[in-house]
Amino acid sequence: MPPNIFSPLSISTIIKIHQKKKTKSTMSNDETPIRFGIIGCAGIARKISRAINLSPNCTLYALASRSIEKAHNFAIKNNLFSDSLKIYGNYSEILDDPFVDAVYMPLPTTFHLQWAILAAEKKKHLLLEKPTALNVEELDKILDACDKNGVQFMDASMWYHHPRTGKTKEMILDSNLFGQVKAIHSSSTYAPGQEFLENNIRVKPDLDALGALGDAGWFCIGSILWAMNQTLLMTVTVLPNVARNSAGVILTCSASLYWEKEETVATFYCSFIAHETMNLRVYGSNGTCYLYDFIIPFEEDSASFNFTSSAKFVDLHIGWNVKPQVVEVTSQLPQEGYMIQEFADLVKAIKVSRSKPEIK
């Protein structure tokens, strides 16, 4: 890879890629389920296949891997077999299947450009695993192919679709409660061990060259842009603790982001060598909001966040006038189920109502 793939421009790349989110749903009354195909048997595909089966508006129709044996074994291991499930031993066959409406693609990032464009050209709506591309130019080509072929694109970041996320944004946007966003901090870290650091595709420069920045850092940067309503920032500064493996892939990274007009600063830390964290803290001029598990909630059917508004010290500074409010949000589906359901709604609107793909 070029030596500057790990420069501050890498973070700017992910920031710009995040500007191209498409998440809004349009409902349709047609009850025909959207037929999903999964391209690639990565571990995350287990979670998405379960979500497809839990979602009422879609069905898992086809599964493809690089060999028929791998696809077959994946289906057995995850109890996916049914009379209607199609098993393919290469990616091209699933794209040629005229009954597949949409595909979920959890391939290594290096392969996204080729297979995402082919999927769009085959008129398959595209749910693409993060990071969606290695750079902005590649993503622009993917989005252009989706636009030309009238198919829906969505980045498969699940946490945006949890009901808690919408409730959190509602309270942050309340100027009386929260004021203006002045600072943000996000972290996404985990320490999977030596086997991962030596053999996982996320530490291989020819497969997922952005390493921890593209994997864990994707969530950090996305959450920061989410808190800033996707406002484009002015300055990115990489802090000097970037660690890489022997192949040059990032294992840990932190940076600061600055919005000059809004006078807002954000920081993040991502790592493959630190204990699990999934923190998001947003500081306003009149409130604060803390999420300790924003990427994967501690529990599947309920999630919470701490919110404090108009807090002051009491007399003599011996305490506070208010305690943080714990806001609890229940959910009927896991967050990936909501993501699949929303994506299927968008696809249904295009198929049945001749709607345009949502470009948000």
Automatic annotation (TrEMBL):
Query: Coiled-coil regions in this chain?
Result: none
Q: Give the superkingdom in one word.
A: Eukaryota
InterPro entries in alphabetical order = Gfo/Idh/MocA-like_OxRdtase_N (IPR000683), GFO_IDH_MocA-like_dom (IPR055170), NAD(P)-bd_dom_sf (IPR036291)
Q: Name one GO molecular function term.
A: nucleotide binding
Q: Which Pfam families match?
A: GFO_IDH_MocA, GFO_IDH_MocA_C3
In this chain the Gfo/Idh/MocA-like oxidoreductase N-terminal domain maps to 34-154
Where do the GFO/IDH/MocA-like oxidoreductase domain residues begin and end?
172-288
Q: Which family does it belong to?
A: Belongs to the Gfo/Idh/MocA family.
Q: What is this protein called?
A: Uncharacterized protein
Which organism is this protein's natural source? Solanum lycopersicum
| Upper lineage | Eukaryota, Viridiplantae, Streptophyta, Embryophyta, Tracheophyta
Q: Which gene encodes it?
A: LOC101247184
